[in-house]
Amino acid sequence: MGAGSSRYRQIGAVLRRHGLGVLAGVLGLGGLVPFHRGALGHARQEDPYTNPEHVRVALEELGPTFVKLGQILSTRHDLLPAAWVAEFAKLQDDVAAAPWEGIRDVLREELGADPEHVFAQFDPVPLAAASIGQAYAATLHDGTEVVVKVRRPGVVAQVHEDLDILRNLADRADRRWDAIRQYDLPGLVEEFSRTLRAELDYLQEARNAERFAQEFAHAARVRIPRVHGETTTSRVLTLERMSGVRIDDLEGLDAAGIDRVALARLGADIVLTMVFDNRFFHADPHPGNMFVQPDGALALIDFGMVGGAHRTDHGRPRRHRARLHPRRPGHPHHRPDRTLPDRRRRRPGRAAAGDHRVHGPLPGPFAVGDQPRNHAPAAARHPAAAPAAPSEGDGAAVQSADDGRRDRGAAGSGLPDARRPAALR
Question: Which long-range contacts link 80-84 to residues 24+ away (Cβ below 8 Å)?
C-alpha cells in the first residue's frame, strides 16, 4: 500500500469500530452495548446510537472526503430512508470545526495581515463548518457585511490521498465483484474526484459565483452573493452575506408568510433555467445552500460544485435518467459487452456526449498563475511583512476587478425578460 498504508489502517480502524455498532443495531443489541457510554471510543450521549448515527460519525471522523460523500447522500431521498437522510443532513453545516489558531494562520498567510486589520470586524466563532472549509462572519471597513470562507489547513493533501484510496478500492471492487460492475464504480469515483478537487480552489468558486450572477442578472427573485476580490485567494473566499430562512425550515417559512407553492415553482424554474437555458448549474443544491428572503426571493450560496450540460444533451433527458440505473438485460440501453461506457479508456480531458462534468477555469476577473500570490493590495493598507508563499500548491495572484462587473443588468447576462419564466422576474 506504500506511503498511504497508515491512512488505510486509520480508515480500517474507524470502519471496524463503527461497523461493530451497526452490526449490534442490526442484531437488535444496540441498547445493550454501551457505545453511548463511551465504549470503543464513542462520544458519550444520553440515548443509544442509531445505525445512521454510527455511519454519520464514522464519515465525520474520516475527514473531508468522506464528509462530502455524506453530504451528497443527504440529498438522495430517492435512495435512502428518511432517518438516514436526516442524519447525513447534519454533515451539511455541522461538522466539527478546525481550531481557530490554524484558521488564523491561513488568513494571515493569504491576506498579508491579521484578520483584525484586514476587516473592521471578524468573529472567530464559525458560522458553519463544512468538509472543505469554515465560514466566518465579518464586516469590511466600508460597513459591508460579508462571509469569509477559509479552507481547512492540510485539507488538500488529505483529500488527494483519500481520493487515491477510493480509486484503488473502486478498481479492486470492479475487478473482483461481478454484481457491482454494472454500476461503473471507478467511473463514479472519477466523477466524484473531479468535482471535489475543483472545490479545493476558492478562486474557481469565485469565478463560478461570478458566472451565476451574470446568468441571473435579470432575475429579480434570484440572489447571488457578490464576490469581494481584494480579500479572495485560492484558500480564502469573501462573499456578500446572504441571510434568510433555510428552504427546509417549514415553520420559519410559514412564520415569515412565504407562499410555499410559489417558492416551489421558483425553485423549479431556477433549476430548469440553469440546466436547459444556461447549461451551467449548481451541483450541490442541499437545503443549507438555499435561503429564502423576506420578499420570497431565493438566495443561492456555495458554488464550489457546478456542472455543465452540452448543447447536444438537451434533447435526450430520457437517456440521462436511464444512465442513473443499472442496464439490465432487456433495458433499452443495455449493452451485452459492457454495462456502462468505460471512462478509463478515454483520453484525459475528453468526455462523452451526455456526461455532466465540472467546468474548468472560466474567463473572469481572477487569474491563476504559477507565481506566488500578490499580497500588495491588502499589505499596502495594513502594513505587515508579506508572508512566504504557502506550500500546498496554491500559487495564485488575485487581480482586482472593476466595480462594473457586478452590474446585475449587464448586457449579455441571463435571458431576455420575455423568455425568462414568470417566477424568476
Answer: 83/50, 83/52, 84/52, 84/55
Residues taking part in catalysis: 284
User: What range does the domain containing 242 cover?
Assistant: 96-337+356-406
Examine residue 131 and state whether it is found in any structural domain, yes or no. yes
pTM above 0.90, yes or no: no
| Three cell numbers written together for 366 | 481572477
Question: 63, 91, 119: which is the final residue of a domain?
Answer: 91
Would residue 423 count as lying in a domain? no
Give pLDDT tens digits for 353-410: 333 333 333 333 333 333 334 444 444 444 443 334 334 544 333 333 333 333 333 3
Co-location of 112 and 82 in the same domain:
no
Residue 414 falls inside a structural domain: no
Per-residue pLDDT of 50-105, as tens digits, reads 778 878 888 888 888 888 888 888 888 888 889 989 888 888 766 788 999 999 99
Instruction: Give the span between the Cα atoms of 416 and 425, in whole angstroms.
Output: 10
